[in-house]
Queue: 2 jobs
Job 1
Amino acid sequence: MEKRCREIYYVDPGYAIFDTHIIGVPPIAVGVEDTFIVFPFTKPCHGTFLIRVPGGEEVERIRKKGRAGKKR
Amino acid sequence: MTQNELQKNEQALLVFGCPEVPVQAAIGLYLAGRLGEEGYDVVTAGNPSVIGLLRVSDIKRHYIGKTVDLDRCIGEVAEGKRDAALCVVFAHNDAGISYAASMRYLLPGARLVVVVFGRNAGELAAQVEFPCEMVVEKAVHNPGKLKKGIDEVFGWRASTS
């Protein structure tokens, strides 16, 4: 995530993006690419993937609620 | 007040991982049964596959107690709608370790036991860097050593090491 996204925020497990509570070892990196939000999505049988979706209101929400990481 | 009375009505949340490793269901049913005998209110969380396997194995739900979808369970815990005094997470892959780390954060006051098993148990156990109790065995289809480790952690058997 940190290699891919210029705008990074950190959240704790349980943070909800579009009703999906993300899990992982804290702090969990969530990225913003223009109007898209990039976040880790974990399933028990398939592991963790990075999901990139149109962020809508979630982009502003992560900017307010997340802990800002490096901006490149 | 006896230990059983103290534990009565306290929730034990069992978080199951992917059911591809056969030993998980067996050891999970065993642990659920023992915890129920200890007086815990057992709740079993998992994906639809593992819940289906457990429900078929325990048709009258003598052991597994109430079941809840894993994603829904995470949401309920995160929103403060669900709590547990004891949480046991079964992990045989990276996803399992992620779930365990998340439960450590979401249930800071709970006793957390992480049962690490499968072919890569040793490597996975090394990824656990948060406070918890661990049972680690390279078990795939033989539950014997895993059962011994669980018995030791829960005081149902004296340690032989």
Job 2
Amino acid sequence: MKRVLNFFRRQPIWAILLGIIVVTSLFRPDFLAIGNLLNILVQSAVNGMLAIGMTFLMINGYFDLSVGTVMGFTAALTIGLQPLSVPVAIVLAIGAGAAIGAINGFFVAKAKINAFVVTLGSFIGVRGLIYIYTGEDALVGKVYEFFSFGASRVLGIPTLFLIMLAFALIGEFALRRSAHGRRTYAIGGNVEAAENAGIPVDRTVFLNFVLCGTTAAIGGVLLAARLNAATPGLGWPDTNLMTIATVVLGGTSLTGGSGSITRTLGGLFTLGVLYNVLNLFNVQSFYNLLLTGLVLILVVYVDSHLKQRRVRFE
Amino acid sequence: MDGSAVNAQAQQDSSASNKPQQEAGSALTVRSFFEKQGLIVAFVVVVAFFAIASDRFLTYTNIMLVLRQVSILGTIAIGMTLVIVAGNFDLSVGSLTSLTAVVAISMHDVVGPIPAMIITLLVGLASGTVAGFLVGKLRLNSLIITLGFLAGLQAVTLIYTGGRYSRIVEPEQTWFGFIGRGFVFGVPMPVIILAILILLFSIILTRTVFGRHVISVGGNPVASRFSGIRDGNTIMATFMISGGLTAVAGIMLGSRLMAAQNYLGQGYEFEVIAGVILGGTSLQGGEGNIFKAFIGILIIGILRNGFLLLGLPYYFQWVAQWVIVVGVVWLDVASKRGKLLA
Amino acid sequence: MRKIIVLLTAGVLMVALVGVAFAGGQQEGGEAAMDDDVIVIGHTANNVGIDSYQTTHDRVWTETVAAMDGVETIQLDAGGDVALQLSQVEDLIQQQVDVIAIWPVNGDALVPGAQRAYEAGIPVIIVNSLIAEEGFDYIEGFAGPDTYQQGVNGAIAMIEALDGEGQVVDLMGLPGYVTAIRRSGGFHDYIEENAPGIEIIATEPTDWNRAKATEVMENLLVRFGDEIDGVYVADDNIGIGALNAMREAGVAGDIVMTSACMFGEGYDAMAEGLIYSSNYQSPAEDAINAVEMAVSIANGEEVPFWNFFETPIVTQENMDEYERPNF
């Protein structure tokens, strides 16, 4: 019991999530219907994928504004290259995402340009690439297997969600147990100390940007499977901001050095549930937006206060 | 800069600048000139390119046109420069532009132009004050806070109008349109307003105590606090200025159109920040130049205008922006440390 | 202790926020899905806040349903987000509504959603903007304007006004969006087939945004100067934006403007002779037409697949027969 309470104290987002679920279920028991819960899961698959790589990057002390348009670009490539064969299209699409991540990583780690600038540039530029590639049209998938894969379930659970979950588990394992994960935390906590300890800072940062681009690309593939289409507007204008918000909501610090994918999943599910609840209660979309904004502000406020307490006592 | 710029980034950049300034004694070679003045070079290259490619580009009409088109973003960029110099971000400017334009237009027919403008300015200042309080006094992260404002202010706009757009019923009967549409000695009014504001705030940033505080707070918040500078107040003031100037931009935009739609300013925040960065304002804080930020905005505006004049698809300009922004900043950063890669 | 206070304050604020949101924003129809005697329409719309037409459509929809006995509606706004709309369709299926009405964000990307609803046994109608042809098997029908015809009407008027000779520019809506594509396509196709003397020298998107339209037109005027004889706009909102630029350049009366959809201010401009022709498209009629179709389907009645409502051509000559649009 004490362990459970401790868990909630360290990762308050799960307490908030639980609270919302409980309250909603009291008023609308159909919230707990399996179909509804499964909907929430599949709807969070794409965003979750993006948030995995972003978590790594933010723990490292950076963020990536280009994830939105990278996702859109890879979705377009996944559909558009289908004539070559679906697996080839997927590989090429993910490769493109990794390549853009590498470009970002090069400029940040090697040329030492501020990450905001670099990723803002690629955010805008990749949007241009999407339009150039699609020519302003929507691309429609023609391969039935790909589409049915996107709608498929394993033991009743949407496949797309399971894929995201699998990557999340791998990611969490890598964060906690691998050398790369340890280095990521170390650099995020204190760059100079990390350097002095002999950690290859540049290489780690570079890898994390590649990782972020890759997960954004996988997210794009999942999105393409879900929609069986790709429109030029995908990922614009605020997918990247919502991804960062998801990670921050979970409790990963914006200054780096702490956080985890578990936390991010907490943020992810909370946003998914919140959205679903508002739909269920038929709240008009304008108020929906207002609530999202206020929730963000509130969470940052609460988190900063809790953090101050922690720092003072540790 | 509690949490406003990422920790590792800050440490990385400061360790880079700690390296000895190798080029201090070396002559001002042509090459080092190019590296140091990346922005000017980019500007000249872009202008030259379009002037050669299109004979309509350098005409008086077109120049005035581009200047007027960028005056909205340019006005917002002034405030944004101050916010970034002080070490933060303001992502709410797009939604705030929508809101203030809507308020200005909808209030015009209800209370008259001057009261409408005053109310609009108050709305902008109010938003800036709240944001400034949260970031400056409560020390919350500006990225997420202003992101919340981006969503919240857009929601307020939608709720306020109920989704409908606003318009001035009798555009001929009021002088309000002069702000956005008028000309003085052949120069569009918004350009004149922008020029005055650039001058005013450049002086404020470089010659006043407040300006020095802003630079100091952005460059080294701890030292600032020790010198007795109330950094919380300073930061709050930068957000208030940003909100107020965004309101001015909203008024100009509304006046130009004599109407306002709900998503008018959507996406502005990224364009403005890109222009400000292009202009050399450091995202670490502590360094920035309002006039150069305007040049950055101008370059982006020229790209948009130029691509259309050449008949190229509008989306090519985005790739051009990518190349130019990263390229110019790279040159700038490289020139400071003396080599391309660290 | 302080932490508890902070958390409590946050909790209270959250509850207050939620209360405000529900009080201010809640619409009818949430609970009704569970009641068997009531017909529940699940409606997901492209982007309610984007312009007055869509907002009016949404409002009239709600009012029409409210005036009906035994019918409720769930109003969802996709905010222009394709993935969100798919999620909304899934949620509506989950809530077991009686009929789903969709105003697509994108006609191609909607097909999986329509298919899912079809497989779940819930009838689907498409409102205002078409779904891609592959989706026709999954839907009961379409209720909305014939936007391709609107483009054709714009072309017919343009040919008449220019006497078959001249250069025109096309200011489109939002790239990739079906209505924008069809209105532009209808115009282009008809001109190409019937007016060899007319050349379309530029086609630019404006995202349905008036400020953008002004900017685009300004730049076009610089680029082409007085070579532009006519401008075709995807709706009057864009048209007014273009007129702003044309007025400043002093060419407002000289260039012929035809529009695909009439807005209130366009009506005024037409009275002044600045717009040559437009199509009268009432969002109210659009919404009522769609609601009636949805209710009929939910009641199990047979309805024709194509349910266009009239969007007649309006010119200065016959504009007195029509009321000024209130949006």
